[in-house]
Amino acid sequence: MNVLLTGGTGFIGGKLKTRLESAGHDVMVVSRGPAGHVTWEPDAIRTAVRASDAVIHLAGENVFARRWSVHQKQTLRASRIDTTRLLAEAVADARPQAFITASAIGYYGTSAERHFVAGDGPGDDFLARLCVDWEAARQPAVDAGVRTATVRIGVVQGLGDGALQKMLLPFKLGLGGPMGHGRQWVSWIHIEDLLAMLAWLLENENTQGEYNGTAPTPVSNRELSTTLGRVLHRPAIVPLPDFVLRLVLGEVAELVLGGQHVTPDRAVTEGFSFRFSELEPALRDLLNG
Ligand SMILES: NC(=O)c1ccc[n+]([C@@H]2O[C@H](COP(=O)([O-])OP(=O)(O)OC[C@H]3O[C@@H](n4cnc5c(N)ncnc54)[C@H](OP(=O)(O)O)[C@@H]3O)[C@@H](O)[C@H]2O)c1
Hints:
Elements: E1 2-6, H1 11-22, E2 26-30, H2 42-50, E3 54-57, H3 70-94, E4 98-104, E5 115-116, H4 126-136, H5 139-143, E6 147-153, E7 155-157, H6 162-172, E8 185-186, E9 188-190, H7 191-203, E10 209-213, E11 219-220, H8 221-232, H9 242-249, H10 253-258, E12 261-262, H11 265-269, H12 279-287
Parallel strand pairs: 1-2, 1-3, 3-4, 4-6, 5-12, 6-10, 7-9
Antiparallel strand pairs: 8-11
Helix pairs in contact: 1-7, 2-3, 3-4, 8-12
The protein binds NADP nicotinamide-adenine-dinucleotide phosphate.
């Protein structure tokens, strides 16, 4: 297939591009920078979508890039919502076979008690509202009858960038440990399973709607740090107090400290199988391989 990919220079998109190309797809990347084949200029997008069999939209300002000022919140929203709307309108016009988009488990809000599956309603914090509007921006494509599928992505475990990479240095120095009280849920996914899920949605004509991109077994933040310490043969006993996280990260710290328990019931019911359902083999694969 000819696949138009946004976010193809990023942590997930870069690896997805490699994977899709090795599966025989031709991938054109939309980027703000010189590494892309297509710019975000609306005419360029419309032309590129017309030349594509499918569109995969992963672009978005990194949530942890900087503190959430009013301006940064606008950037986080516009980089997802405006781009999705532009693509969805081009998709509605050109009608490729599939429109696959990213969202985040932030859709559900944070909770210590509730367990979320794909049919559940949204939360009510900044990220939840962002995700609701991000997903709503797909509507022109849905209304035009184009198969549209969305992955609400969890905490991606991979190397090169992302949450795990940021945790490695303190853990290797023996300074790792739980964040805050450590009881908050971490709904993680091995990068290979996320890439496989995106490829499954691209290639499986029976899929559409919203799917949770999380492994079947979320863990507590304390279990994540204990497991990472065990895999790295390092202690994991130095907690990172919540006030330090709030001082360093600002409002985005609430995401890390709140957590959410999200499972991929819908994807599993529809036939997707995970290579890494449990955290320890996933981390061993990434770090000891
Ligand atoms: N990684 C995770 O754990 C995780 C969890 C939940 C959801 N997600 C979602 O999955 C998607 C991909 O995540 P990722 O970790 O691969 O992100 P990433 O490494 O930060 O890459 C994001 C991509 O988006 C583009 N981008 C960044 N800022 C932008 C802006 N202001 N306007 C337009 N494009 C912009 C960049 O492309 P150019 O610089 O080439 O333009 C980059 O390739 C994102 O939408 C993210 O919210 C990721």
